[in-house]
Automatic annotation (TrEMBL):
Keywords: Electron transport, Transport
Coiled-coil intervals: none
Family under the similarity heading: Belongs to the ETF beta-subunit/FixA family.
Protein name listed in UniProt: Electron transfer flavoprotein alpha/beta-subunit N-terminal domain-containing protein
Amino acid sequence: MNILLAFKAEPDPGMLAEKDWQAATADTHGPDVSLLRCSPGADEQAAAALLLAQRNGGCEMTLTALSIGDERALHWLRYFVALGFETPVLLETTADLRFAPEFVARNIADWQRNHGADLIITGCQSSEGQNSQTPFLVAEMLAWPCFTQVERFTLEPPFIVVEQRTMTGLRRCRVRFPAVIAVRQCGEVALPVPGMRQRLAAAKADVVRRSVVVETTPAVQCLRLERPEQRRHATIISGATAQEKARRLWADYLRQRMPS
């Protein structure tokens, strides 16, 4: 059973210092995140953890980790190799892919057509574009069913059992391969940490690298950066003396909350 995990290594803007955000307000280019360390989103890390748990449970599978972007994704591709993924793939481009879900989906679908996969797993949405379109576009291009908001899944070849979070609760479905599922991180799984021996071996692993060309990308421009005002909600109790303030606190606030 061949399974493809597609992830996007994204910079964490929370690592920027206050002065970097302040400097970015001087123009419309936005903060410079080119030097920030990138990592997969929480959804994609949860998907990888669920896959590895299935393998540890005895389910036979061949795992491929695929990312689209620049060389900053190489660290995480080798990290996944250290965890047990057989094939790391980097589709290289320096283009801005924050708002290009169709391009990302087309390359994932092309890789599947050329190399084959019974199951494609993604996160529900990226932390940058947050458009939530990529898994649906991949499924449409391949004419596969797509399931999103998946919190857990169990592999029972040739089926997969998924648990989806819906407006009315948790729905459990049993689906025949092939399929596309988008995993939602729900705080119950964590990505394993490989040992030093596995890390050293993965550092020498060959990463399949293919250059991809972006025909057109949307012109993304930062219009304005505004720092939200952070104030606590409070009520000032006024009074001439401390005793008067204490009586007002009791009458207006504490008395209504005391059990009768």
